[in-house]
Amino acid sequence: MRISRVVAIAAIISLPLVVFYFLIPRSAILRVTTEPVEGEIYVDGELVGKGTAEVTLPLGSHTVSFGELPDYNSPEPREVELTQEGSAVVGTYTRQTGVLVIDNMTPLKMPGVTAGLIALHLGEIYLNGTKVGEGEICLTLETGSYIVSFGDVRGFVTPQEKIVIVRNASSETITAIYTPKFRNISVTMAKQLMESDPSLQIVDVRSPAEFKAGHIEGAVNMPYAVLEQRMSELDIKRGVLIYCASGMGGVLGAGILQDAGFNVYHMDGGIIDWVGAGYPLVKEG
């Protein structure tokens, strides 16, 4: 009798515990979304949706992973501890990117050496019709196809537009050559031209101080900064030989005169190569 009473009391005490045990939630909802695009959603290796998914799962640890999409980096898989309150996961896809290097240039003789070129970077650069820089730029872009075009530079032939494909985690390089419409000649050819053509006009685009310290005989000083304003002083019917210290200013000046209709010769290497060849200079003052 006594034992039966003990058993009955134990049953009465344990009954609420058993009921409570079965009333405790053993599962919850896991909500998963992807942005900014709709990607496939996997939970514990099984596909459960695309873009957004709500699944009821046992409490505990679950693995959420995402499918691949073209031109996007997939979110990393995640371990989620699902609790009674439920859990939410957002998977963010990021665009794949690559590097595009664009170099606009015209080869220019390196002064002071018999062989060697330097690049004079010229011209505006456009990507799909929008200006992105000038001369030389390096861009990090989303993967895909782009049209690269170039602005006009006076006295030079504008390079044709190019189509480039930027690939993921790679680097693409475009070199656009601006070809001069004027003639580049060596200092030796320049000296011969002076001797054979007495009507030749010689233009020095260096600063007045540089010109005064030593210039080619018969040259007129028209600094590059004011060349366009003063070029009306020149006779468009006569040839023009233009030079600077090393060639860079002379190239740009030659382009201005060529664009204005002059018959232009540019002396490669400038006054540096002229002196290096042993040719004389005239000093003032």
- SSE string, helix = H, strand = E? HEEEEEEEEEEEEEEEEEEEEHEHEHEHEH
Which ranges are low-confidence, i.e. pLDDT below 50, for 5 or more consecutive residues? 15-23
Strand order across the biggest sheet?
A: 20-24-23-21-22
CATH topology-level fold name of the largest domain: Oxidized Rhodanese, domain 1
Give me the secondary-structure category.
Answer: alpha/beta
Task: Compute the average pLDDT.
Answer: 90
Number of domains: 3
Please tell me the CATH architecture of the largest domain by its name: 3-Layer(aba) Sandwich
**What is the radius of gyration computed over CA atoms, rounded to a whole number of angstroms?**
38 Å
Q: Describe the sheet with the most strands.
A: 5 strands, parallel
Give the C-level CATH assignment of the largest domain: Alpha Beta
Structure annotation, total helices: 6
For CATH, the homologous superfamily of the largest domain is named as Rhodanese-like domain
Strand content: 35-45%
Q: What assembly state would you assign to the polypeptide chains in this entry?
A: single chain
Shape: rod-shaped
Distance between the termini: 137 Å
Structure summary, number of beta strands: 24
**Percentage of helical residues?**
10-25%
